[in-house]
Amino acid sequence: MRIEKLDSSTKKNLLEDLLRRSPNSYGKYEASVREILENVQNRRDEAVFAYTKQFDGAEINASNIQVTEDEIREAYSLVDDSLLAVIRKAKKNIKDYHEKQRQYSWFDSRPDGTILGQKVTALARVGVYVPGGKAAYPSSVLMNIMPAKVAGVDEIIMVTPPGKDGKVTPTTLVAANEAGADRIYKAGGAQAIAALAFGTESIPKVDKIVGPGNIYVALAKKSVYGYVSIDSVAGPSEILVLADDTANPRYVAADLLSQAEHDEMASAILVTTSMELAEKVSAQADEFVQELSRGQIIQKSLDNYGHILVAETLQDAIDAANEIASEHLEIMTANPFDVMTRIRNAGAIFIGEYSSEPLGDYFAGPNHVLPTNGTAKFFSPLSVDDFIKKSSIISYSREALEAIHGDIETFAEAEHLTAHANSIRVRFPEE
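Request: output the structure for the sequence above.
Response:
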């Protein structure tokens, strides 16, 4: 991995480099995505079936697009019992964590007859996109479905691309069934996003779409926002490790590579106050690349977006971490909890040398669907909040309104909205 001194120039170049990974830079794919969306919107099932044949090589039609109970039972027979046990443990941890995020309606009443409040309502129907093919991620199935279940969503529709045999990856099906998906459809890519956004004869329209996907899926979600809500437009994965001379270089290198193996656009950054640590981590990373099964992908990721930045002070390192606003941030310093209090921008924060990033990916409970490409400055992880909406409650008695009606009329007339003022005034003709 390349080692650089952290200064204003290297930080600026790094930030510009990382921004090129943003889905907002995928302009050359937009025309293709737009064509797919329009086709599905106009031709509905017919277009979904045709694209599934074209892109996935599977013969899907109205009779087999929905996963059956028999297919789910078959999936269970193909998943190892030990993995099923782990899926169930992880599901419990994810459920328990998200239960603590639940919000409830509230009302505040006053003696004059004023009642103000907030009504919390779960979304009626949510679509969950799950990648297919070689990328089988049962952990993402749990992370996207469980907060929706905890929120109380009425119906959860999952879509995932089938293999050429027309079947869905068994681990994906088992995780979806364990998490509580209500219906599962064999459709992927931009065409599946379009089906969820607009509805087809087979796939119902949803209120919100969540879940990760490739460039086409990301751009499709971005395009249908407004027809439906979406969680975010996710970019490639990223990790930043903030470390001082007390950190274990072997742990740091291993954690950096845990994200670099996702794909060639993944970003792995170490910001440290120790040149000695920087050199040891770089050497250790080179050793690991030779040993790991996805070594070629890891090496390309490190060549493209891997950085080791050496800062003068710990505060300089913290400032850089806040500016980068990484999806995953690990803190390996002498006093990591003190450093954590000074972190403003990060998707998920892992504290201490035994809190490695995969703990959050699979098992701890907090959601692993996180803001990327610097959006942790204003976005949060996927949560129960993503599956609810809030309505304001206002109720005034005549006594309560009478006391302040003149103020409202004054405000309305100042904005030249006389009908607004009249709507209040007609209730007090005697005045």
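The first helix runs from residue 8 to 19.
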